[in-house]
Amino acid sequence: MENDKKRTVIADDVEITGTIKCASAIELGGKLNGDMNCSNSVTIGASATVKGNLTVDTVIVMGQVEGNITAKDKIDLKSTARVNGDIRARRLAVEDGVTFIGRSEVNPSGTRPAGDGKTAGPETPPSVPDSLEDANRSKGIFGKK
Amino acid sequence: MADRKKQVAYIDGLSSVRAVRRSGRNADGTHYRPSSEKLPVVETPSDPQPVKPAKRIGQTALPAKFNLICYECGFRFVISGALKDTLCPKCHAVLSARDHRINSAWSGVIRTVGTVSILPGANPEGGSITTRLLVLEADAGSASLTVTDTLELCTGGSFDPTRASLQDVSVRADHCVLVRQRLQCRNLDLHGELTADVAVTGLLTIRAGGCLRGSAHAAHWTVEEGGGVCARMTIAPGEPHAPATGDCTPTPPRKNSSRKSK
Fold first, then answer.
1. Contacts for B252 with CB less than 8 Å, ≥ 6 apart
2. For chain B, what are the domain ranges?
3. What's the pLDDT score for residue B233?
């Protein structure tokens, strides 16, 4: 509970080299050359640049990220977001204008969020062609290219 | 006084009342007297009820608009209201708006600005389909497809992208579609699940309940919360992407008669 109230703000003129580990929410406005592990929500500001991997609970990206993003809950890419890497989360929301190059592994069943009253899902599972199926078997989401 | 001297040329209600008053007698012979009965007093509410604002109409109902492309000359125009047989404003060709449903063996030519549905059990053997809307619930086979608006894919629907000229593609909700070859289109709207390699020159939209598998190249990308993506994505606004296969504008037939140049 206390961690929910705490919030770390990194100004846009700050440059950090290393790994950030935090249990409270972080709002990054500067540069980060390294990884970030946060068990709370992270906001990457419009002027922020991250060169490393993000392992978070929830992330809102408005800046630039060069690395993989792994979120336990949700990844929210705003219109000014530029992501070059793989993303993995339970939920995803993307606005128009996002630049994204990488692989995405989000909500593979395509189920709608709770409260919608409808449970979507394929009536019949698709038959994946051999090329795609083999590609999925051989390498993981963050496997070597 | 002047009224008494004035001779009435016709008898109307006013003149009769005046005559009765002059005579001092009522119609039944009794002397005219003003009625002693008091008129009932209308009780006016002390506090006037507030005027309830009328239910506000948020938006005026506008007729539906249809973007049509003449399958004779390729002229693009818009009509509003009901979609029915119309004339091309340029070449004056009659454009049929008839809807077609194919659910058995078929081979022929369909040209319409309506909707063509290829239903389960259909077996198109060659042929050509030029339509505004195409609903695919079965294999289109070797038929040549020209869709000027939207191709709607459903479970069981398949086609050969190399023999299709498309604009917008959509996948119906709760349906799964597999396209083995590279799919190129202008806009892609996923309400259901699509497994394909797609190249979108416009907007790739993944709705809640939709899912994309495979790979995608798009200029613009939007994902609603609840949408799924298990694909390799390359989203780069502003960068040129591979255009859609062919031009959806139907090639007008050549005419031997020479035309007057303007």
1. B72, B73, B74, B91
2. 94-235
3. 94
Alpha-carbon distance values, B23 to B8, B16, B33, B37, B165 (Å): 15, 11, 11, 22, 97
Give the one of B193, B221, B226 whose C-beta lies nearest to A94's C-beta.
B221
Residue-range domain boundaries for chain A: 2-112+120-134
Q: Closest-CA residue in chain B for A121? A: B174
Would the CB atoms of B195 and A126 count as touching at under 8 Å?
yes
Query: How many CB atoms are closer than 10 A to CB B211?
Result: 29
ipTM: 0.72
Per-residue model confidence (pLDDT) at position A27: 95
Q: Which residues of B touch A135 (CB under 8 A)?
A: none
Rounded Cα distance, B173 and B120, in Å: 18
Mutate to test the interface with B, among A90, A96, A128, A137 (most CBs of B within 10 A): A96
Contact yes or no for A133/B213 (Cβ under 8 A) = no
pLDDT greater than 70 at residue B212: yes
> pLDDT tens digit string along A79-131?
999 999 999 999 999 999 999 999 999 976 655 555 544 443 444 444 444 44
Angle at A93 between CA A61 and CA B184, to 5 degrees: 110
> Beta B144-153 vs B115-118: how paired, if at all?
unpaired
Mean pLDDT of B213-232: 93
Say if residue B224's pLDDT is above 70. yes
- What pLDDT shows up at residue B20? 72
Please report residues of A whose CB lies closer than 8 A to that of B173.
120
Nearest-angstrom CA–CA distance, A56 and B120: 47
pTM (global) more than 0.80: no
The tokens describing B7, both together, are 């001779």
The answer to whether the Cβ–Cβ distance between B230 and A93 falls below 8 Å is no
> What span, in angstroms and rounded, lies between the C-alpha atoms of B192 and B228?
10
Residue B73 has pLDDT above 60, yes or no: yes
Which chain A residues are Cβ-neighbours of B176 within 8 angstroms? 122-126
The pLDDT value given to residue A143? 46
Confidence band for B49, pLDDT divided at 50, 70 and 90: low
Q: Is B214 in Cβ contact with A93 (below 8 Å)?
A: no
Pick from B220, B229, B236: CB nearest A92: B229
* B178, B195, B233 member nearest A100 (Cβ): B233
Q: Is A118 on the interface with B (CB under 8 A)?
A: yes
